[in-house]
Each structure stands twice: as structure tokens, then as C-alpha cells.
Design goal:
mainly alpha; 2 domains; 6 helices; elongated
Length: 105
């Protein structure tokens, strides 16, 4: 039950509207993590403390590399099943075909 509450509190931090609110919520989460001493959250807590300024920077601007990560994931999945491609040109064409939308297909 405590782990669930800590997880939900983390989601509350991630939903913060601005940097100041996020900083307060993160401090609350870190304090709760210290009080509860749940071993499964130890590595997560350490990572958040180490990267705190950079994580809070995400609340200043609304940029994300989600699209790029999605493309990379799609390319890696295609690479795993692309054993039959003879050369890079064919592989590149298949990547471009899979990552673009085709209204007629």
C-alpha cells in the first residue's frame, strides 16, 4: 500500500504545471521515500537526486524527444526482422516506407 501511494505521489509530481510546483512535489516525494525506506525505490530516488536540476528543466520548456525515440524503436524492430534485405538502400527504403503515413494503403 505504501509503494502504491509513493508511485501515485510520483505521478502527482510529473503532472506539476510549472517548475516551482514540481520542485516542491519532488522534495515531498524524496522525503516520503526517505521515511518509508522501500528498497525498490532506492535506485529511483538516487537517480532523481543526481539528475534533479535537469529533470526540473523539463518543466521550463515543453520539448520532448518522444517522436525521435519512437522512430528509433520502430527502426530497431524493423532491423530485427530485416534479415532478407540485400543492401542498405533497400533497408533505408523500408524504414522510410514504415515511418510515413500512406492514405492510399
Amino acid at each position: 500500500m505504501q509503494a502504491y501511494a509513493l508511485k501515485e505521489s510520483f505521478f502527482d509530481f510529473m503532472d506539476a504545471p510549472d517548475r516551482a510546483t514540481a520542485s516542491k512535489r519532488l522534495e515531498y516525494w524524496l522525503d516520503a521515500c526517505d521515511r518509508l525506506k522501500i528498497p525498490e525505490f532506492k535506485a529511483c530516488r538516487k537517480m532523481l537526486v543526481n539528475w534533479k536540476p535537469y529533470i526540473l528543466n523539463a518543466f521550463d520548456c515543453c520539448l520532448s524527444n518522444g517522436f525521435t525515440e519512437g522512430c528509433n524503436n520502430a527502426i530497431k524492430a524493423l532491423k530485427r526482422v530485416a534479415f532478407g534485405f540485400k543492401n542498405f538502400t533497400t533497408f533505408r527504403a523500408r524504414i522510410l516506407l514504415s515511418l510515413t503515413s500512406h492514405p492510399n494503403i
